[in-house]
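Summary for the steering committee. One of the milestones for this cycle was to obtain a three-dimensional model of the protein with L-MYO-inositol-1-phosphate bound, which we needed before selecting residues for the alanine scan. The sequence and ligand used are listed below.
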Amino acid sequence: MSAPTWLPTDPVALLALARPIAEEVAATLERSLDGDGPSVSAKSTPTDLVTELDTWAEAHITERLLSARPDDAVQGEEGAKVAGTSGITWCIDPIDGTVNFVHGIPGFCVSIAARVDGRSVAGVVVSPLHRDVFTATIGGGATRNDRPIRCATPASVARSVVGTGFGYDPDRRRRQAEVLARVLPYIADIRRAGAAALDLCSVACGRLDGYWEVGLNPWDHAAGGLIATEAGARCADLDGGAPSERFILAAPPQTWDDLAALLSEADAASV
Ligand code: LIP
């Protein structure tokens, strides 16, 4: 498939700009683990962490992107908000999986997506400790380390290994644990990687047979959602609309409806 004609800029060129920036920042984050570790503070709750490197990474990525494309807009997890006139908005999660990063657990990643009217057209996710670079362009397919990837073909939900994640609010986490207890008997197993971007890329390359979460922000899924979609997975909210803060479910087409039905039955979207 080729890129849609409505695009203001070639998504391949946007990916070519973003990918080396994401790789450079991911390498810097990995090297920082050899030191004494970054200063850490809390955001919305004591478990919602942010480090000085989250802030540095977002500023560095923003500066590099806008020095190449000064008319673009930027939206970032740590507060970057730049208006633009080009029609391209960069959606940045400088460190997705900050808790993993603070603990030195593999699975933190750098996620950068280029969006047009809220729709991702190019995306890159770099997970440095896994040595994984995931990319996609709209209509151009998805890759892991430059090799094409496709989502899994699970026989059923009962044979599916599914990822999920939890919010930072204690009451929401309790309700999410209750949903998990209702879902777990009907799937093969659960995985909690701690980074939405990585979970979505794991669906894209067939490591996971599905992933759902409530309460994500655009930067959590902007790149990983495109990568999963371009790898053949369906990525939507429970009503089949665009993924949102309310709900995201990514799964292969052959099991998406059954997994959505199980999650609806478990009240997964109402936490
Ligand atoms: C993380 C998400 C993950 C969620 C974590 C956390 P952050 O983002 O990517 O899916 O389960 O609780 O929100 O805060 O590390 O950038």
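Key point for the committee: The CA atoms of residues 99 and 171 lie 19 Å apart.
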